[in-house]
Specification:
The protein has five helices and five strands, in the order βαβαβαβαβα. It has 128 residues and is an alpha/beta fold.
């Protein structure tokens, strides 16, 4: 079975490092962008493998709102499912999640097993 491939978009260094380590310890491949601009550059320059399964998105980035970032990314190429993981207020997180068509929405701090399950649910079915 192919490993899950996640683009983590998280500006907080401690949270990003912890999330990357957790994901990688589960055998999940991770690319990490620390700002919206960094994520856009990864997409624009073709540094993101087309096999990307899911974007794990923090909504509150220092350089742009997560919803705006997703609009930019979708102009470059289609995005895979998006899982929101944010410390924003509950109503804001769920409203933006609905607007983006997010596969799942979590407020920080998040139960790891629930988040892991949501990410794994985004894995495409294997063709036999």
């Amino acid at each position: 079975m192919r490993s899950l491939y996640v683009l983590l978009i998280e500006d907080d260094l401690d949270s990003g490092e912890a999330m990357s380590l957790l994901l990688e310890s589960e055998g999940i491949r991770v690319d990490w962008a620390r700002t919206g601009r960094e994520a856009i550059e990864l997409y624009r320059n073709g540094n993101i493998d087309p096999a990307l399964d899911v974007i794990l998105l923090d909504l509150m980035l220092p350089d742009m709102d997560g919803s705006l970032l997703v609009q930019y990314l979708r102009r470059i190429r289609p995005t895979p499912p998006i899982v929101i993981h944010s410390a924003a207020g509950q109503a804001e997180v769920y409203d933006q999640g609905c607007q983006l068509g997010a596969a799942a929405v979590f407020r920080k701090p998040t139960d790891w097993e629930e988040l892991r399950g949501a990410l794994l649910a985004c894995r495409p079915a294997e063709v036999v």
